[in-house]
Amino acid sequence: MIFDTEPQNWTELQNYVGQMFEECGFETEISKVVELVRGKKEIDVYTQDTRSEYKPIILVECKFWNKAISQETIHSFRTVVSDFGANIGFIVSKNGFQKGSYEAAQKTNIKLVTLKELETEYYSKWKQGMIEKYMPFADRLFPYWDYPGKMPVDGGTINFEVQQLIHSAYAPICRIGPQDQMKKGFRRNYPISIPILDDDFNKIDELEILSDRQYFNFVEENKDRAYEQFKKLYRE
């Protein structure tokens, strides 16, 4: 799934939701104040999928309550969504919804979900967004490890074993490719074990990646280091 941990308070829940939509590639604002028919209203998460055909606007209300959400809350948020003209409204609840809430949301554009249910609904778009974000970093590594690949600028040779070791150490980045851009293309089998190298290309430890979140966290944290290590090997 998208997140490995659960939010511990309302602020974290709001930030998780905002982060998820932002990583999907949506234009996203947290705590956005919008103009309604009866005045202004602060929305927990405002987001818009500007890359899709009809560019839906989505409003999200985050409820980190210790009780189920009542139908009165649904009616109130439905009015906000309608007055603003949003396409979809999500209420994300920590502890579910009362029976009357589901009845209040029927035949409306309001969806009642937990965070995990919201993650499930946007999981494919999230993967596509993350691949699009990191594809350029994979592309710049490609010439260094693809056969026959680059030649050192001084015309000399490189240590092939070290090149393969660097490739293994940054395999999560190197493995990102066009096949991952398909709707359900990104699939990895976990755990993934990779060597950790020092600045002199010595293996000093090993890292185990257990989830998609850890995979993309690794890419984010190592995208520039991988490039610098390949450049060092090729004496650039």
TrEMBL record:
Q: Which Pfam families match?
A: Mrr_cat
Q: Name one GO molecular function term.
A: endonuclease activity
For this protein, the record's Gene3D superfamilies field holds: 3.40.1350.10
Q: Where is the Restriction endonuclease type IV Mrr domain?
A: 9-118
EC class:
hydrolase
Enumerate the UniProt keywords alphabetically.
Endonuclease, Hydrolase, Nuclease
Q: What is its EC number?
A: 3.1.21.-
What domain of life?
Bacteria
For this entry, the protein name equals: Restriction endonuclease
Q: Which organism is it from?
A: Psychroflexus salinarum
